[in-house]
Write a sequence for this structure.
C-alpha cells in the first residue's frame, strides 16, 4: 500500500482541493488515503508516508497551519530531500516559503524555500487568471499543465532553480515572472487552486508512476476529453 | 454641496435618457453620480427608513418580500430590485427617491446589498436595519471564501457603530457572530428542528469552531452549515433566537413564530427550508418595525416565490420548470441538487449552469464542481441528466465520479440540441436548472423543450 496523507482537509478544502486526493485514491486501490485533522499529529511525523498533500486555506487558517507545521520543519526538509512526493496547491505553497508580508505584518513561514509572499486583502487586489504551463518530468517529458489562480497574494524571490513549471500563457508566481510554483525533488507547489489532479490528468498519471503504481486513471477517457477541451478553450481565449 | 447638486442634476438627466433607451433597470446614472460626487450616497437625502438586506443566499427574495410589504400598504418604496446591489445601483436607486432639490419623495428605501462591498457603501448610506441572511461559499473569483466575506461584513458593522440594528441568523455559525462589540442591538432569528433530514455536504463552510478551532457539531441541521450548532471544545453555540420558527411544516407551507412568550402562525410561500428562512428573516424585520403578526400573515399569504427563480408550464401531464441554481455558488447549487433528489417525481434535469463570463474564463469553474454535491443527483427518480454548454465535459466527469450511471448522462455542447434529448414520456417533470444570469435563456430552452414535446405528440 502507498500512504497518501491529506493534511488538514477541514481547513484546506475551500475550493474543492480535497477531491484531488479522492480522485487519486479512486485511480488505484493500492493507495491508502489518510485524512489528518489539525488537532492530531500528522502521519508523516512518525510514519514513512509516500505522499503528502496540502490544499488552499483561508488566510487566518493558513497562518494557523504554519504554526501547526513549524515543529516539523526539519522533518519536512528531510522528506523533501529523500524524494517523498509533496503537493501543495493554492496559497499552501506560501507556507513553505520564508515569510508572508501583509502591510506592516510579517508572518514567518517554514523557510524551506527562500521565496516570500505579499498579501493584499482588498477586493480590487484579488487576482484571477488562468495559465497554460510546461512541466518537465524527471525523465524529461514535457507535460502541459492547466491552472487557475484566484488569490490575494503573489510570491517573490529567485525562482531560477526552484520553479515548478514555466508558464506559456498567464502569469507565474507574480506578474513579472513566467516561473510558476516551487519544486525541489518531488516537492511540487503551484498557486493553482481547486482539484488540481482532475484539472491535469497527465500530471496525475505522472504522480501515480512516481508512486510506483499503474498510471490508469478513473474515468480516464472522460477526464482526458475534458482536459483537452479545456486546453483548447484556454488556448483560444488566451489568443 | 455645489458638487453634489451638479452630480444630482446630471445623474437625474442621465437617468431619464438611459431609462428611455435601456429601461429602468440601468444603473449608469448612478455611475455618473458617484463619479461627479464620490460621497453622493452619503449626501443624497434618504427616507426615514432605510433597510439593507445582505448575505450570500436569499437576499433577493427577502428584499422583495420586504419591499412588497411596504408597497402593499400604499407606501412609496425605492428598491434596487434588478440586482444592482453595489455602488451605482444604490446611487441610482436613491436619486430616484429625491427631487431636484434633494427632497426625499419616498417613504422607505429597501436595498439589496452586495456583501463584499457593504463595508465601503453602508457607512455612507447608514441604514437603520441591516439584515444578514447567511454567509456561505460563493464565487471564488469575486468573493474568495466565507471567512473573507465575514471579515468584510464585520468591518461594515464596525463602521456603522451602534446606529444600525443587526438582524442575524442564529443558525449560521458564521454570520451570527457579526456586529459583536459594536454596541448595536443584535436581533436573532432561528428555527427549531425542521426534520428535513439534510444530506451531508462534501464541503463544510464552517468546518471548525471560529473561537477555538474545535470541531463544530450540531444538535440538528437545516441545510449545509445552518442548524443548532455547538463546539466540542469550548462554549461556542447557537445564540438564543429572539424570533424562533417552530412547527415548520414545509409540505403544508406553514410555521409558527415564537417571540417573547407569544406564538403566531405564518404562511410559507414554498416547500423549501431556505425559503422558510427567507420568510422568517422578513418576519423578524417586520416585527421589529411594529407590524402585527396578523398583518404579516395576511400579507405573506399573498406572496409567491419570485418568478425569476422558478417558472412552470404544463403540457400533456408533464410539468416543465425553469429553476434557478446559481452556478459557482456551491451552497445554492448543492441545495438545489438536494431538492432534486428529495422531490419524488420522475424527472429529467437539464443543466444550463455556465456563467456568462465563463466563456472568457474557461477552466476555472471546475473548482465549484468539486465542492458541489453532485452525488445527490444519483437518485433513482432522476431519469436523465442533460449537461449543456461549454462545460459539459466537466459536468459529465463530475457526474460519473459522483456515481451517476453513464447511460443517464447526455452531453450536448450546443444548447440548441437540448430539446431533442429530453424525454417526452415516462416522466412527470423536467427541470431546467439555470445560472441566475440566464433567466431568459432558461425560459427559451424550456419553451423549446415544450415545443418539441408538442411536435412529437403531433406526429
Amino acid at each position: 500500500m502507498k500512504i497518501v496523507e491529506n493534511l488538514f482537509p477541514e481547513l484546506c478544502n475551500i475550493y474543492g482541493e480535497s477531491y484531488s486526493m479522492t480522485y487519486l485514491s479512486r485511480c488505484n486501490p493500492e493507495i491508502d488515503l489518510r485524512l489528518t485533522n489539525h488537532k492530531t499529529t500528522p502521519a508523516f511525523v512518525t510514519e514513512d508516508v509516500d505522499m503528502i498533500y496540502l490544499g488552499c486555506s483561508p488566510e487566518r487558517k493558513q497562518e494557523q497551519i504554519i504554526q501547526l507545521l513549524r515543529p516539523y520543519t526539519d522533518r519536512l526538509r528531510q522528506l523533501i530531500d529523500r524524494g517523498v512526493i509533496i503537493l501543495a496547491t493554492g496559497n499552501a505553497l506560501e507556507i513553505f516559503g520564508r515569510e508572508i508580508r501583509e502591510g506592516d505584518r510579517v508572518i514567518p513561514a517554514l523557510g524551506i524555500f527562500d521565496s516570500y509572499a505579499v498579501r493584499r486583502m482588498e477586493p480590487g487586489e484579488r487576482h484571477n487568471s488562468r495559465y497554460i504551463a510546461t512541466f518537465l518530468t524527471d525523465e524529461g517529458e514535457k507535460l502541459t499543465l492547466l491552472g487557475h489562480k484566484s488569490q490575494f497574494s503573489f510570491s517573490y524571490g529567485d525562482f531560477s532553480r526552484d520553479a515548478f513549471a514555466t508558464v506559456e500563457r498567464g502569469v507565474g508566481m507574480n506578474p513579472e515572472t513566467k516561473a510558476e510554483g516551487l519544486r525541489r525533488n518531488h516537492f511540487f507547489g503551484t498557486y493553482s487552486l481547486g482539484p488540481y489532479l482532475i484539472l491535469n490528468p497527465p500530471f496525475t498519471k505522472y504522480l501515480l508512476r512516481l508512486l510506483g503504481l499503474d498510471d490508469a486513471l478513473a474515468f480516464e477517457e472522460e477526464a482526458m476529453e475534458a482536459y483537452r477541451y479545456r486546453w483548447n478553450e484556454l488556448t483560444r481565449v488566451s489568443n | 454641496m455645489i458638487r453634489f447638486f451638479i452630480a444630482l442634476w446630471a445623474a437625474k438627466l442621465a437617468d431619464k435618457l438611459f431609462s428611455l433607451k435601456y429601461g429602468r433597470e440601468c444603473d449608469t446614472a448612478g455611475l455618473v453620480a458617484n463619479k461627479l460626487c464620490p460621497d453622493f450616497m452619503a449626501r443624497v437625502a434618504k427616507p426615514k427608513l432605510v433597510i439593507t438586506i445582505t448575505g450570500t443566499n436569499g437576499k433577493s427574495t427577502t428584499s422583495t418580500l420586504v419591499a412588497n410589504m411596504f408597497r402593499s400598504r400604499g407606501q412609496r418604496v425605492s428598491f434596487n430590485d434588478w440586482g444592482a446591489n453595489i455602488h451605482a445601483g444604490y446611487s441610482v436607486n436613491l436619486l430616484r427617491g429625491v427631487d431636484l432639490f434633494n427632497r426625499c419623495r419616498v417613504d422607505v428605501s429597501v436595498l439589496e446589498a452586495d456583501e463584499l462591498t457593504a463595508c465601503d457603501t453602508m457607512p455612507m448610506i447608514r441604514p437603520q436595519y441591516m439584515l444578514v441572511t447567511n454567509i456561505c461559499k460563493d464565487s471564488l473569483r469575486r468573493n474568495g471564501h466565507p471567512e473573507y466575506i465575514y471579515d468584510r461584513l464585520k468591518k461594515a458593522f464596525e463602521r456603522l457603530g451602534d446606529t444600525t440594528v443587526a438582524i442575524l441568523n442564529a443558525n449560521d455559525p458564521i454570520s451570527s457572530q457579526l456586529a459583536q462589540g459594536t454596541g448595536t442591538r443584535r436581533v436573532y432569528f432561528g428555527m427549531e428542528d425542521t426534520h428535513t433530514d439534510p444530506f451531508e455536504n462534501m464541503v463544510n463552510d464552517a468546518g471548525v469552531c471560529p473561537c477555538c478551532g474545535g470541531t463544530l457539531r450540531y444538535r440538528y441541521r437545516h441545510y449545509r452549515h445552518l442548524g443548532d450548532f455547538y463546539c466540542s471544545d469550548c462554549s461556542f453555540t447557537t445564540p438564543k433566537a429572539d424570533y424562533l420558527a417552530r412547527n415548520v411544516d414545509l409540505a403544508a407551507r406553514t410555521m409558527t413564530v415564537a417571540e417573547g412568550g407569544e406564538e403566531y402562525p405564518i404562511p410559507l410561500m414554498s416547500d423549501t427550508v431556505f425559503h422558510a428562512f427567507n420568510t422568517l428573516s422578513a418576519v423578524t424585520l417586520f416585527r421589529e418595525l411594529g407590524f402585527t403578526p396578523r398583518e404579516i400573515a395576511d400579507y405573506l399569504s399573498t406572496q409567491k416565490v419570485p418568478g425569476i427563480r422558478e417558472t412552470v408550464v404544463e403540457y400533456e401531464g408533464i410539468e416543465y420548470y425553469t429553476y434557478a441554481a446559481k452556478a459557482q455558488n456551491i451552497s445554492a447549487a448543492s441545495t438545489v441538487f438536494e431538492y432534486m433528489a428529495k422531490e419524488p417525481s420522475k424527472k429529467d434535469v437539464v443543466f444550463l449552469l455556465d456563467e456568462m463570463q465563463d466563456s472568457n474564463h474557461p477552466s476555472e469553474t471546475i473548482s465549484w464542481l468539486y465542492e458541489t454535491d453532485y452525488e445527490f443527483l444519483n437518485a433513482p427518480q432522476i431519469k436523465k441528466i442533460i449537461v449543456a454548454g461549454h462545460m459539459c465535459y466537466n459536468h459529465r466527469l463530475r457526474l460519473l465520479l459522483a456515481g451517476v450511471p453513464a447511460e443517464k448522462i447526455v452531453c450536448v455542447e450546443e444548447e440548441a440540441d437540448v430539446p431533442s434529448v429530453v424525454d417526452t414520456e415516462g416522466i412527470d417533470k423536467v427541470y431546467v436548472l439555470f445560472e441566475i444570469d440566464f433567466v431568459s435563456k432558461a425560459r427559451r430552452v424550456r419553451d423549446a423543450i415544450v415545443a418539441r414535446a408538442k411536435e412529437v405528440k403531433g406526429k
Observations:
- The interface with chain B takes residues 10-11, 13-16, 19, 23, 26, 38-39, 58-61, 64, 121, 123, 126, 128, 130, 146, 148, 150, 152, 193-195, 198-199, 218-219, 222-223, 225-226, 229-230, 233-234, 237 of chain A (CB under 8 Å).
- The mean pLDDT of chain A is 95.
